[in-house]
Write a structure and sequence with these properties.
Layout: E1 5-14, E2 17-18, H1 20-29, E3 34-36, E4 49-51, H2 72-88, E5 100-105, H3 111-123, H4 133-136, H5 141-150, E6 156-159, H6 165-178, E7 183-190, H7 195-202, E8 232-240, H8 241-246, E9 254-263, H9 275-286, E10 295-297, H10 304-318, E11 324-326, H11 337-353, E12 355-356, E13 371-372, E14 378-379, E15 384-391, E16 395-402
Parallel strand pairs: 5-6, 5-7, 10-11, 10-15, 11-13
Antiparallel strand pairs: 1-2, 1-8, 1-9, 3-4, 7-8, 9-16, 12-14, 15-16
Pfam family, one: Ketoacyl-synt_C
Domain Ketosynthase family 3 (KS3): 2-403
Keywords: Acyltransferase, Transferase
Length: 407
Amino acid sequence: MTARAVVTGIGVTAPNGLGTAAYWAATLRGESAIRPVSRFTPDRYPARLAGEIRGFSAAEHLPGRLLPQTDRMTQLALVATDWALADAGVRAGDLPEYDMGVVTASSSGGFEFGQGELRNLWSQGSQYVSAYQSFAWFYAVNTGQISIRNGMRGPCGALVSDQAGGLDAVAQARRHVRQGTRLMITGGVDASICPWGWVAQLASRRLSTSEQPDRAYLPFDAGACGHVPAEGGALLVVEDADSARDRGAATVYGEIAGYGTTFDPHPDSGREPGMRRAIELALADAGLAPDDVDVVFADAAGVPEQDRIEAAAIAAVFGPLGVPVTAPKTMTGRLCSGAGALDVVTALLAVRDSVVPPTVHVTPAAEHGLDLVTERPRRLPVRAALVLARGYGGFNSAVVVRSPHPQ
């Protein structure tokens, strides 16, 4: 299991940009997409802001037969996959179908589709419930639809670990590549901005109830008051480096070099949370020392205690102010399983362009001891980046990406 897993294609569907170029340009401008919810009337709910993808029409990108059988998250995932494959220069038939697989992450499944069918059941009767409800709501549906649409019959799977899932899926894809699969589609997309999904997220008690878009999501800030939910994510083409070279891949964004994952102990156990250990495992897997990491993309919970735990873990590994830290998700909100995958993409773009995107709206609290990149991008050589993600309930994951040409 020594094959290098590299990223050769990227597809992004984010609140502040559809497509990689639009997303990256908006991120470097510090352009926030957090606004009042428009997909339903949120007046009766305590949280009313979201990072929504506006201007997306699935009918402009997908065949009509797919529209009635897919949830919004699946439509976004299919389009992101199309863009990632086009970016990688991979067409149907280029590789044997059993040499290609799919691993995605999902936090909620097709909530909006499910809500619509439950409404039909309650208001009209069971004969009005779509047969597609049997799978359109399911956590694994993105993997299934991507594999069917693109004739990918190799290893397939789905991971459910909230925001950490986006990183877990990328790591699982790397594992399959190391075991001999030539190409994997991986990442995560979520979209549950509907009343049913909203109530489920409110149950975590971590949503911000601020109605000021520039003050609602403030990780590592003294004013931190929760996070803003969002929709979208990213899909990546991950290949064996030798296979990518042999087929003439035009672009290699970077290598998935290391991965670590842990689970937090019970809060009353008195034991240390697992984030620091996940970081150490990822660095060891990549064969890197802390000084080799040029930037950390933080999980950035926006909940004071969670921020304290993450900052302490980063400081324990890198030292106080020891490495630049950023959280560009302050522009999008937290995308559930899509967040980790989008952060991996953002880290790869930072490696490509030698620039760290900013954490907008945040004034870092001195108590956290972080060198947080705020206000504007910071130009610096980025050879290796660490991406962190946590899931509700205790999941911790860390992924190291590095330049395809490490020095």
